[in-house]
Design a protein that fits this description.
Length: 372
C-alpha cells in the first residue's frame, strides 16, 4: 500500500504471504492495493493472535545514477477487538528490512497512539519519512526481506512477526546520469576598430571601436577546420570628406551587420603569448549614409540611404587569442551602388558616383578581450 502521485509509482505486496483471503484489509480506490498478509502476535500466556497487515512502498519509477532514491514504506494493520482486554490505548512501530539491488536498509514505521474501541476492530497506519539509497545503474529490484512489529497495549508489550516475508516489491530504473549541455564552442571576443580608405575620395574613415564576439565550435569539418560564428557591433562614425578636391562634406557612416558572421578557424593553443586562431570569416554589412552636410549646408539624403546589397568583409589570417593581444588583418572591399538616397530628389547617382566602387582597402584592428 502506498500513496500515489503523478510523478511516482506505488509498489505494494503482502508483508506475509499466508492463506489467501486471511484478514483482507480494505484499500482506498486511489491507492494500489497490496496483497494481504498477517502478523502472528504473541500474547501474554503463550497465545497468539493474527493481525492482518498490508505493506507498501513508494519509490520513483526512475532516477539518474548517483542520485539518492527515497524509499518510503507504509503499513496498515487491523487490530482485533481481543486486544482491548490488555488496555484501552495502543501504539507501537513496524520494522521493515528492504533491499534495493544489493543495498540493504531498514526503517521503523511509527504507529501513533490511538484509542481502542469498546467493540470491533481498529485499523491503524504505520508511516515513515522514508530512507535514501543510491543504487548503481540498471534496474534496481526492491525486495522486502523482513517485517516485525512491536505493539504496546496499555502497559503490555506485544511482539509480532510476519512469516514468509521474502518478496519483490518492484524495481527502479537507474538511468545514466544526464550529460550536461555542452557549450556551443570556445568563445573569443575582441574589440574591433575598422579603418577604410575610400578609394574615390582618397579619404580614411575610422569606425569603432566596436566588438566582435566569436564562438569556435568543437567539431571540425571535412577540411579539418573548426566552425566559427560571430556577432559584429560597430558604432556610427563621423566622416570628414573633401569632394571634388575643394568641397568639404561631413556625414555619418553606419555599418550594420546582415546576419551572423560565418567561417572557420584552426586553433593553436600552446600556452605562449603566440596562441592564435587562424581564421577565415566573412562579415556581411549594410553601409548607411546619413546626416550629410555639404560645406555646412544639409543635403537631404534622408535616413534610408544605404548600399543596395551588403558588403562582404573578409577577415583572414592569424588572430592572437591571449587577452590584451593586438592583431591586424587587412582586406579590400567593393562598395556597391546606393539606393534610397534623397528625400526631395533622387540622390542615388550622386552618392553612388562619389563612394561606390572596388579597391577600398580595409584595416581591422582586433584587441583580444578577457574571457567573460
Amino acid at each position: 500500500m502506498g500513496f500515489s502521485c503523478p510523478s511516482r509509482v506505488t509498489l505494494g505486496v503482502a508483508a506475509a504471504l499466508l492463506a489467501a483471503g486471511a484478514g483482507v484489509v480494505a484499500v482506498d480506490a486511489q491507492e494500489r492495493a497490496a496483497a494481504p498478509g498477517t502478523f502472528g502476535c504473541a500474547l501474554p500466556g503463550g497465545e497468539y493472535v493474527d493481525v492482518p497487515v498490508e505493506f507498501g512502498l513508494t519509490v520513483p519509477e526512475a532516477a539518474p545514477v548517483g542520485t539518492p532514491v527515497t524509499v518510503t514504506p507504509s503499513a496498515r494493520l487491523v487490530l482485533p477487538a481481543t486486544l482491548r482486554s490488555y488496555g484501552s490505548t495502543v501504539e507501537g512501530l513496524v520494522a521493515a528490512e528492504i533491499v534495493v539491488r544489493q543495498e540493504k536498509t531498514s526503517e521503523e514505521l511509527d504507529i501513533a497512539a490511538a484509542e481502542l474501541p469498546a467493540a470491533g476492530d481498529l485499523t491503524v497506519t504505520a508511516a515513515s519519512e522514508g530512507v535514501e539509497v543510491t543504487p548503481e545503474q540498471g534496474k534496481a529490484q526492491v525486495r522486502l526481506t523482513g517485517l516485525t512489529a512491536s505493539l504496546r497495549v496499555g502497559q503490555t508489550t506485544i511482539s509480532c512477526t510476519a512469516n514468509a516475508v521474502e518478496g519483490a516489491l518492484g524495481s527502479v530504473d537507474i538511468t545514466p546520469a544526464a550529460v550536461a549541455d555542452l557549450p556551443p564552442g570556445l568563445p573569443y571576443n575582441f574589440d574591433l576598430t575598422v579603418t577604410t580608405r575610400l578609394a574615390k575620395l582618397k579619404s580614411d574613415v575610422v569606425i569603432g571601436p566596436g566588438t566582435f564576439s566569436s564562438v569556435i565550435g568543437f567539431l571540425p569539418g571535412p577540411d579539418g577546420r573548426l566552425p566559427l560564428t560571430g556577432d559584429l557591433s560597430l558604432p556610427p562614425a563621423k566622416a570628414y570628406l573633401v569632394v571634388f578636391r575643394f568641397m568639404p562634406v561631413t556625414n555619418t557612416i553606419t555599418l550594420t551587420p546582415v546576419g551572423q558572421a560565418t567561417g572557420s578557424a584552426v586553433l593553436t593553443i600552446d600556452g605562449t603569448p603566440n596562441a592564435n586562431a587562424d581564421i577565415d570569416v566573412v562579415l556581411r554589412v549594410d553601409l548607411r549614409v546619413s546626416e550629410v552636410f555639404q560645406d555646412g549646408v544639409p543635403l537631404a539624403v534622408g535616413d534610408a540611404c544605404h548600399t543596395a546589397t551588403p558588403i562582404d568583409i573578409r577577415l583572414r589570417g592569424k588572430v592572437l587569442v591571449v587577452p590584451g593581444s593586438v592583431s591586424t588583418l587587412t582586406s579590400v572591399i567593393t562598395i556597391p551602388p546606393f539606393t534610397g538616397c534623397g528625400t526631395t530628389e533622387d540622390l542615388d547617382p550622386l552618392i553612388t558616383g562619389l563612394v561606390s566602387g572596388p579597391g577600398n582597402p580595409l584595416t581591422n584592428r582586433l584587441v583580444t578581450r578577457p574571457p567573460v
